[in-house]
Recover the amino acids of this structure.
């Protein structure tokens, strides 16, 4: 009697489970672990070569900067600094040195090399690596916030330091242009679709 009752309860709960999930779309996860959301951010990021002057909200800017702050660094020495260029006056100074594709916000990422960890075995300084991690956090978070962006490396650090004397003691390792894409010209370029295959890139040992 007790057994039959328990079986019945078990059957009911199975049916209820099935019913509960029956109208839920099957999960479209390609990967078994992690979240599709993160892979979608990685997949949707692209280098934007033309920005509109549309406004970027303060709360998005805050979120992006917080992501930069959370970046790890060698020995946790945190040598990276971020200068946010967004006032008309500062943008004009920067654009005289590099047009930055007309972005309304440009983050200049640099480090004081002497604040970064130096590897004893070969004397290599981690500043550039630390800066690259911060920039990657900024770039992906900007994408997550629905903002177009562009990592710029082809600039003259000396000229940037001339335009902004407050950076004169820092290595300038990257600029991140952020904003909304301009119609047509702000779309991904052909290069965005070109990646090596896993077989070309990875060697399993
Ligand atoms: C470290 C780094 C520096 C880059 N510097 C420049 C640059 O100075 N000028 C430029 O046009 N693109 C630059 N890019 C963009 C790359 O050309 C671009 O990421 C690559 O072609 C792949 O295209 P996608 O970002 O649209 O996927 C840079 C990208 C990275 C990651």
């Amino acid at each position: 009697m007790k057994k039959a009752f328990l079986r019945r309860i078990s059957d009911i709960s199975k049916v209820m489970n099935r019913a509960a999930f029956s109208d839920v779309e099957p999960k479209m996860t390609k990967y078994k672990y992690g979240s599709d959301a993160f892979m979608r951010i990685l997949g949707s990021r692209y280098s934007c070569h033309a920005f509109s002057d549309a406004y970027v909200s303060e709360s998005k800017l805050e979120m992006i900067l917080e992501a930069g702050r959370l970046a790890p660094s060698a020995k946790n020495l945190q040598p990276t600094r971020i200068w946010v260029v967004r006032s008309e006056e500062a943008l004009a100074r920067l654009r005289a040195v590099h047009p930055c594709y007309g972005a309304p916000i440009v983050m200049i990422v640099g480090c004081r090399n002497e604040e970064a960890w130096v590897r004893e075995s070969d004397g290599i300084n981690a500043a550039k690596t630390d800066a690259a991690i911060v920039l990657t956090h900024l770039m992906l978070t900007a994408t997550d916030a629905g903002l177009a962006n562009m990592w710029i490396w082809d600039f003259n650090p000396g000229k940037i330091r001339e335009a902004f004397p407050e950076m004169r003691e820092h290595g300038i390792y990257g600029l991140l242009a952020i904003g909304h894409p301009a119609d047509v010209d702000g779309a991904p370029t052909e290069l965005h679709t070109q990646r090596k295959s896993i077989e070309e890139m990875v060697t399993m040992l």
About this structure: The CA atoms of residues 92 and 181 lie 20 Å apart. Confidence is low (pLDDT under 50) at residues 9-22. The beta strands are 80-85, 105-111, 148-152, 171-179.
